[in-house]
Amino acid sequence: MRIEIDSALRPARRLRKLLKEIPPEMPPEYVRQVRTQSRRLEATIHAIKLAHEGRARRLLKRLKRLRKAAGGVRDMDAMISKVMSLAGGMGGDGRNALLRLTEHMAAAREKSADELRRLMEDRGKLLRRKLKAYARRLRKADPEEPGESMAALQVLTAQLQHWPRLRADNLHEFRIQAKELRYMLQLMPGMDEHTLNAFARVKDAAGEWHDWLQLNEYAGKILDKKEDHAILRRLGKMEHEKLRAALSAANAVRQKGLAAN
After folding, report:
1. How many folded domains does the chain comprise?
2. Of 32, 9, 22, 17, residue with least CA distance to 211
3. Which residues have a Cβ under 8 Å from the Cβ of 153 and sit 6 or more positions away?
4. First-to-last CA distance in the chain?
5. pLDDT tens, position by position, 16-46
6. What's the pLDDT score for residue 19?
7. CA 227 → CA 90, 147, 233, distances in Å?
8. Cα-flanking dihedrals φ and ψ of residue 170, to 5°?
9. Is residue 261 assigned to a domain?
10. Which residues of the chain are under the pLDDT cut of 70?
11. How many whole angstroms separate alpha carbon 149 and alpha carbon 61?
């Protein structure tokens, strides 16, 4: 497998830039980019033979911690956005329930954002140096050498091809693996756009369902099952609808086959 070095370096460059200037308010798009670029870089490291170096393993550990911290903020942003989308179609009691839910999530979001900011301020400079060192090593790698790069791609493809029947309890993990495979395929020049778009549809549809699933579970812990039954029923309906759409997108990809060039 031939790796496109410029594509492999891109997430590291973008993440270094994000870590250089940390906004105090942690806006949603900034947090989303931190999480996305961390995930892309993890997939890139897994796709190349550098993944088995000691320094690369330590970098992966730092990236995972950053990604998970950003994920806590991003989850709240996604759920708040979903709640806001429902507000217009609810009566007075429903809107009050949504307001209470939003206030609770906003407080949780602020706490998670503070934790993310502290992590980035404490470890950001060190991580930027690690990313710079990683980029130097990557530039010295042989992009033509298949070895472990092709092996990683083939293993991930085989896992998805032989995935058990897709259900609610394994769809999210399928999405994570499919997203990682898509990131790996994007490193290959000339990759078929239809294949990449199919994986993007799975990523988006399953991600949309998972956001509603998390919101439904979160609301079940905060709202009253009797007084707020209308909004809880609405959330359950949305979750079910998004699950059907996500399963349809994922099964379509599996039926067409998962082939890596």
Report:
1. 1
2. 32
3. 1, 47, 181, 184, 185, 260
4. 8
5. 999 999 998 999 999 999 999 999 999 888 8
6. 96
7. 14, 60, 12
8. -130, 0
9. no
10. 1-3, 49-52, 89-91, 141-153, 257-261
11. 20
CB 31 within 8 A of CB 116: yes
Range of the domain at 149: 5-256
Neighbouring residues of 208: CB distance < 8 A, sequence distance ≥ 6: 242, 245, 246
Give the other-Cβ count within 10 Å of 88's Cβ: 7
Give which of 109, 113, 116 is closest to 77, Cα–Cα. Answer: 109
Residue 159: both structure tokens together: 């896992």
Residue 186 is predicted with a pLDDT of 82
φ/ψ of residue 191, rounded to 5: -65, 140
Cα dihedral 153→150→8→183 (10° resolution): -10
Residue 248 lies in a domain: yes
pLDDT at 2: 59
Q: Say what the pTM is.
A: 0.86
Question: Which residues touch 136 (CB under 8 Å, ≥6 apart)?
Answer: none
Q: What is the pLDDT of residue 141?
A: 65
pLDDT at 109: 97
Which CATH number covers residue 180? 1.40.20.10
- State the Cα–Cα distance between residues 103 and 32, nearest whole angstrom: 21
**Nearest Cα to 71, choosing from 247, 181, 249, 210?**
210
Are residues 223 and 100 in contact, defined by beta-carbon separation less than 8 angstroms? yes
For residue 185, give the amino acid letter.
L
Q: Which two tokens stand for residue 158?
A: 């085989």
* Whole-angstrom distance, CA of residue 34 vs CA of residue 123: 14
Rounded Cα distance between 61 and 57, Å, is 6
